[in-house]
Amino acid sequence: MRLDELPTSDRVEDRRGMTAGRAGGIGIGTVLVLTLVGWAFGVDPRLLIGGAEQLSEGSQTQQQQGPTGTPSDNTGRFVSAVLGSTEDVWTNVFAHAGKTYEPPTLVMFSGATQSGCGFAQAAMGPFYCPIDQKVYLDTSFFQDLEQRFGACDVGSKTCQFSQAYVIAHEIGHHVQNVLGLLPQVQQAQRAMDQPESNSLQVRVELQADCLAGVWANRAQAKWQFIEPGDVESALQTASAIGDDRLQRQAQGYVVPDSFTHGSSAQRSQWFTTGLKSGDVASCDTFRAQ
Ligand SMILES: [Zn+2]
Prior knowledge:
Helix content is about 55%, strand content about 10%. By secondary structure, it is of the alpha/beta class. Strand 6 (about 125-130) and strand 7 (about 135-140) form a beta hairpin. Helix 2 packs across helix 6 (about 180-190), helix 5 crosses helix 7 and helix 8 (about 230-250) runs antiparallel to helix 9 (about 265-275). Bound molecules: zinc ion. Zinc ion binds near residues 42, 169, 173, 205 and 208.
């Protein structure tokens, strides 16, 4: 992908190199919740919001704040450009619907940090916290994408597009949140048994993939930034990450068998749907069979 024409965002909070003080009340439950959150590189709003309720009781969450702006290093500039393009795209989509888009902050961190949803660790992968409306991204995840997951060729531009897709997916969760969908899903899940609830969760994830596709479509129309191989690389990424999560399970992380974020085929299908249509209305994963 080409970065040169993408607008940069100044909503990148840079906590790289900061140490995260773990607050007293946060225990294994929080870590478990957030490990689940990071599974399949996405947020699970049911666990997040449910988890946050648990958190608010026992934790004295320490506030952490890094400088916010546009970082000057390569990775920071890349993240800022992708975030900037999502701001432009979603501002326009919302304006078209008579709404105002309030963009989220993206927190870059290394190792561990405090989030509005509890203690965040690098091993979790990127996630969106609906409580503080921030996307959390440990940039070592980008290296993992290249080196461990084999999702794309190391240092290649197609790898960049895979990384951009991961960010766009998290921004998709923010869009779902500000449109009121995440709270609705959470409410509906309260009355559901586990399989039903999981099935609804899959639809949330697939919709975020579709919204990432909508972003790619609109950004492409405006900046022609996609290069040959990029889309294939992004599609490959979803399945590659799924594999790694299974490895984590083998390493002793607790992941319920019943919990799923959709098959690779489904994820590819919905990203492609959004990419082809550029239309949010095409992302009704809740109505689709
Ligand atoms: Zn997700």
